[in-house]
Amino acid sequence: MNIVSTVKEVREQVKEWRAQGLSVGLVPTMGYLHEGHKSLIDKAVEQNDRVVVSVFVNPIQFGPTEDLATYPRDLDRDAALCESAGADLIFHPENEEMYFEDFCTYVDMEHLTKGLCGKTRPTHFRGVCTVVSKLFHIVQPDRAYFGQKDAQQLAVVRRMVRDLNFDLEIVGCPIVREEDGLAKSSRNTYLSEEERKAAVVLSRSLAKGKELIESGELDAETIKKAIREVIDAEPLAKIDYVEVVNFDTIEAIDTLDGIVLTAIAVYIGKTRLIDNFIMTIQS
Ligand code: PAF
Fold first, then answer.
1. What is the mean pLDDT of residues 122-133?
2. Ligand 1 centre and the CA of 254: distance in Å?
3. Which of 67, 68, 100, 261 could form a disulfide with 247 if both were Cys (CB 3.0 to 4.6 A apart)?
4. 28 pairs with which residues across the strands?
């Protein structure tokens, strides 16, 4: 497995693979890889002849008061995980390689990016859409892999690919969880021991919501209230949002119907964590 840092090197490698008729999968990441990322790489290895993993902490998707400076980084560890999972190339560019000093072209999406995480992170999805577009242009993969943990990001990237006619398939992969139910995330490393225990409230509250839906409850307000009650009972937790939306449009719904995303963002101490589940409701 090779690690390269320039667009030119990626293009040369991919061109060589293409000349041999090989298919290419891309797993975009910000590094500090865990089992969740590994599941994306595993899927990519299963479905493609060659796999590129990008490791780039994208500065333009962080707000001014967010954790860009402290975001965890460990390229050696990431490389070991990629190698053992069977990836073929890591693209690890410097900021200057991705963004010229006078960079001024962005991909901005309306509607889907305004709710959920977009409410408190108004420039986040512009940063995601821009960097993901750049990665798609640089690697030109047949398929790209995104985790369902960032469900809004998955919906946004799918819509961008459709709207801008990118010629690739977006593959969504299930959430990978710790044994106690906490969704795997690079940001879990910020949690103290006490906070780590409290963080299980996210998956526990969603389990309550899921249980209600499975018992026939279709009123979004009732489901949100039940989820909120579980979270509010945890002293270290502070709700950012609890929402029930249509998964394609990310618009709030009153009555559950079709593909429904129940998503939450919760502060555990200073760390903001997200989690969700998706269910298809046949009316
Ligand atoms: O999900 C992430 O890690 C990032 O948002 C992504 C897709 C790699 C873009 O920087």
1. 98
2. 30
3. 261
4. 54
Alpha-carbon distance values, 257 to 172, 217, 220, 252, 254 (Å)? 21, 11, 10, 11, 9
37 tagged catalytic: yes
Cα 241 to averaged position of ligand 1 atoms, centre (Å): 21
Pocket lining: 150 vs ligand 1, CB cutoff 6 Å: yes
State both tokens at 22: 């090989």
Q: What pLDDT does residue 283 have?
A: 76
Percentage of the chain surpassing pLDDT 90? 99
Q: Are 234 and 201 in contact (CB under 8 A)?
A: yes
Interior/surface letters 94-104, b for 16+ CB within 10 angstroms, e for the rest: eeeebbeeeee
Nearest CA to ligand 1 atom 9: 128
CA 183 to chain centroid, in Å, comes to: 12
Nearest CA among 203, 200, 196, 132 for reference residue 168: 132
pLDDT digits (tens, 9 = 90+) for 206-239: 999 999 999 999 999 999 999 999 999 999 999 9
Residue nearest to atom 5 of ligand 1 (CA): 128
Ligand 1 atom closest to residue 150's alpha carbon, by position in its atom list:
1
Both tokens of 18, joined, read 């293409």
For atom 6 of ligand 1, the residue with the nearest CA is 29
Q: Which of 37, 111, 124, 137 is catalytic?
A: 37
**Are 175 and 154 in contact, with CB atoms under 8 Å apart?**
no
Q: Is the CB of 29 under 6 A from ligand 1?
A: yes
User: Are 186 and 36 contacting, i.e. CB atoms less than 8 angstroms apart?
Assistant: no
